[in-house]
């Protein structure tokens, strides 16, 4: 019996007899392993809820116990009575959506000629924008802060949204997507006498809708969760976003963990619910970011 | 078509720039101009907005003799190296196991492990302050397996491990998505052929999965590396305003932030930013080389 035949038989054995038994065993072990991992990953969420319904004095004292000694919603009452929490919420919504709408619009407009036209300096422009991605945003923090002061944009929504809206990654992603469109449809519309602007609005936009959706989700999540830039621009309490407001509570000398935990819960759970509804688009979008580099 | 009276905005030479203009105007103002300003500021002594004095390489000289900078650099490198191991190995193994078909209800586990990615780092930080507290959950679990309680957030040497625990929770699910999309692109024939040759699961993982995933692994490593060097929110929240014991959690960006917005030394802070940018650029170029760009030169 030659060696390759022996291997073949071995392989065949895996699918019958003891192989099937082995497979079931590893299925059980691995599923249990993931069950444990899943529980460990959910614990911080549970802790967030748990701490927000504990009585405020016990949040740190009971930080190790799995159940609350009593359930109370006083933290939430305090949150709304002592802080401009609704205002922070509104600010976060305005900034997340404002940023996403502006950034997606700019990226989609700019990606179109970079993907579908030939014009002077096209490659220079594209490569410069792409290369700027390598520079950390933090390097620009001080000049941007000074610009905000000079432009009187401190404490304004536009000051948070505008400087980050020309998003190099968003442009790159949209351009890649537009490169894959078939020229036939565009040429047909041109022959029919459509202007470039009509073409963009009536033909290109509907075709790139999935990419617009992906970027919109990613950008609004980025706008909702960002801390550093809004922390620098928003200086008065009524202008804080949720992230800035909660970070500010942590920065107080006497920390109010009841307010912090109730705020953390309310800042997080709407996003989780939205995600569970739109999971497919979310994951498909993020996966496509990864596969973009493989080409 | 070739009508000489084509309106200005419809001329073929003008059309691309109409589309590009809004992006380019913001890009030139808030990126290109800001980069130039940052470089100029790094050679100046600036006390507050409006008053500055050219001091040449003064800030750079000061930086390279500043023990705080070296502390921040060392911490950042330590944290980044930790994430490069944890956030590659764990997500890769978990993604491969979930993809193998050996786990029941894999979709539910994928969703669960992804949820932390949606949370704001501020929220992650406050929750982990409770979990890592002296009487907190982690210590009570360690106690169960006989490890004495640690003062995670009060010990300088435990600052980076504490942040690595947090990072593993926050980012594992994201990197799993990248690896899963890579796994889906590996041709099944490769595995079938290996199975016929008698390769076991571990061998198939090592000889097929890892080499096939190479581009995506390098991509995730690049993201992890750049993200690691930009560490800021985690120490800023874990220790009130980032004041960690013995500066154990001080990162380069936190150092920059405090120099600019606590000491109001805007020139020196710009110098830190420029040096950080140089470090990240060099590391990115190394990574791009690994990815196989610049191949023409060989």
Folded structure, characterized:
The complex is a heterodimer of chains A (295) and B (298). Chain A has 295 residues and is an all-alpha fold. Chain A has two domains: 3-75, no CATH class; 83-251, MetI-like fold (Orthogonal Bundle), CATH 1.10.3720. Chain A is built from 16 helices and no strands. Chain A starts with a helix and ends with a helix. Chain B is mainly alpha-helical and 298 residues long. Chain B has two domains: 8-41, no CATH class; 61-297, MetI-like (MetI-like fold, Orthogonal Bundle), CATH 1.10.3720. In chain B, strand 1 (44-46) and strand 2 (52-54) form a beta hairpin. The two termini of chain B are 48 Å apart. Chains A and B meet through helix 1, helix 2, helix 3, helix 5 and helix 6 of A and helix 1, helix 3, helix 4, helix 5 and helix 6 of B.
Short description:
Chain A is mostly helical and 295 residues long. Chain A has helices spanning 3-15, 18-52, 58-61, 74-82, 85-116, 122-132, 141-150, 157-161, 168-179, 183-191, 196-207, 209-225, 228-233, 242-251, 257-277, 279-292.
| CATH C-level name of the largest domain in chain B | Mainly Alpha
The percent range for helix content of chain A is over 70%
Gross morphology of chain B: globular
Number of helices of chain A: 16
Give the overall average pLDDT of chain A. Answer: 88
Q: Domains counted in the coordinates of chain B: how many?
A: 2
Q: What does the oligomeric state look like here? A: heterodimer
Count the E strands of chain B.
Answer: 2
CATH topology of the largest domain in chain B: MetI-like fold
Largest beta sheet: strand ordering of chain B: 1-2
Our Rg estimate of chain B from Cα atoms comes to 25 Å
Arithmetic mean of pLDDT of chain B: 90
Uncertain stretches of chain A: 1-17
- Content of β-strand of chain A: under 5%
Strand content of chain B: under 5%
- The CATH superfamily of the largest domain in chain B turns out to be MetI-like
């Amino acid at each position: 019996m030659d060696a390759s035949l022996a291997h073949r038989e071995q392989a065949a054995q895996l699918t019958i007899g003891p192989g099937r038994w082995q497979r079931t065993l590893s299925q059980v072990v691995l599923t249990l392993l993931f069950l444990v991992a899943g529980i460990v990953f959910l614990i911080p969420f549970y802790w967030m809820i748990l701490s927000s319904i504990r009585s405020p004095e016990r949040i740190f004292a009971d930080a190790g116990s799995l159940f609350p000694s009593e359930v109370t919603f006083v933290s939430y009452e305090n949150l709304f009575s002592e802080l401009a929490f609704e205002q922070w919420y509104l600010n976060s919504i305005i900034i997340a959506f404002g940023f996403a709408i502006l950034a997606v619009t700019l990226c989609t407009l700019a990606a179109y000629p970079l993907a579908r036209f030939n014009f002077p300096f096209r490659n220079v422009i594209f490569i410069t924008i792409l290369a700027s991605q390598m520079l950390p945003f933090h390097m620009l923090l001080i000049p941007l802060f000074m610009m905000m002061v000079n432009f009187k944009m401190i404490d304004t929504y536009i000051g948070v949204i505008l400087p980050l809206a020309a998003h190099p990654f968003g442009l790159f992603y949209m351009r890649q997507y537009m490169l894959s469109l078939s020229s036939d449809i565009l040429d047909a519309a041109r022959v029919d006498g459509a202007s470039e602007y009509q073409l963009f609005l009536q033909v290109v936009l509907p075709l790139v809708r999935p990419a617009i959706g992906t970027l919109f989700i990613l950008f609004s999540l980025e706008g909702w969760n960002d801390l550093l830039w809004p922390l620098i621009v928003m200086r008065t309490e009524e202008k804080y976003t949720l992230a800035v407001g909660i970070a500010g509570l942590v920065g107080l000398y006497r920390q109010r963990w009841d307010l912090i935990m109730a705020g953390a819960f309310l800042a997080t759970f709407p996003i989780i619910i939205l995600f569970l509804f739109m999971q497919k688009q979310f994951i498909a979008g993020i996966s496509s970011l990864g596969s973009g580099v493989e080409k | 078509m070739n009508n000489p009276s084509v309106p200005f905005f419809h001329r073929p030479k003008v059309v691309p720039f109409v589309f590009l203009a809004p992006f380019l105007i913001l890009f030139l103002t808030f990126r290109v101009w800001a980069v130039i300003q940052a470089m100029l500021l790094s050679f100046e002594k600036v006390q507050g907005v409006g008053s500055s004095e050219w001091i040449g390489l003064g800030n750079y000289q000061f930086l390279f003799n500043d023990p705080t900078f070296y502390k921040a650099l060392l911490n950042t490198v330590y944290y980044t190296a930790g994430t490069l191991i944890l956030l590659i190995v764990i997500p890769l193994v978990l993604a491969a196991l979930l993809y193998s078909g050996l786990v029941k209800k894999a979709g539910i586990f994928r969703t669960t492990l992804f949820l932390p990615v949606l949370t704001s780092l501020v929220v992650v930080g406050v929750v982990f302050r409770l979990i890592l507290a002296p009487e907190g959950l982690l210590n009570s679990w360690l106690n169960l397996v006989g490890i004495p309680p640690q003062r995670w957030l009060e010990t300088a040497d435990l600052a980076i491990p504490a942040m690595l625990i947090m990072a593993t929770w926050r980012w594992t699910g994201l990197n799993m998505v990248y690896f899963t999309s890579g796994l889906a692109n590996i041709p099944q024939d490769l595995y079938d052929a290996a199975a016929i040759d008698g390769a076991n699961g571990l061998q198939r993982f090592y000889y097929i999965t890892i080499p096939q995933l190479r581009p995506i692994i390098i991509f995730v490593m690049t993201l992890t590396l750049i993200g690691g060097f930009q560490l800021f929110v985690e120490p800023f929240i874990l220790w009130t305003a980032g004041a960690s014991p013995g500066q154990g959690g001080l990162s380069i960006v936190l150092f920059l932030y405090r120099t600019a917005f606590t000491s109001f030394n805007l020139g020196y802070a710009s110098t830190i930013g420029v040096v950080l940018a140089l470090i990240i650029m060099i590391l990115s170029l190394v990574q791009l080389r690994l990815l196989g760009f610049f191949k023409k030169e060989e």
